[in-house]
Amino acid sequence: MSDVKADMKVPDGHSDRMVTRQKEKTEKGFVGYETIWEPWQKEVEYQTPKRP
After folding, report:
1. What is the chain's alpha carbon radius of gyration, rounded to the nearest angstrom?
2. Phi and psi at residue 33, in whole multiples of 5°?
3. Does pLDDT of 47 surpass 90?
4. What is the DSSP string of 3-36?
5. Strand partners, 21
6. Which of 11, 31, 43, 49 has its CA 20 to 30 A from that of 19?
7. Cα distance between residue 23 and residue 48, in whole Å
8. More confident residue, 5 or 42
9. Could you report the per-residue pLDDT of 10-45, keeping only the tens digit for each?
10. How many CA atoms lie within 13 A of 41 on its CB side?
């Protein structure tokens, strides 16, 4: 019964600006999660100001 639970795939978790995904099972049976953050703000390329 425990083997059946260990082989289950968990769906991706979606939250505000964040996604969690299940990693592959390791040799020891550990299953971890990967956290992916979306950017909170835009990054604009710097432009030098005009000279007076």
Report:
1. 21
2. -125, 145
3. yes
4. HHHHTPPPPPEEETTEEEEEPPP-TT----EEEE
5. 34
6. 43
7. 44
8. 42
9. 888 888 889 999 888 888 887 888 999 988 888 899
10. 2
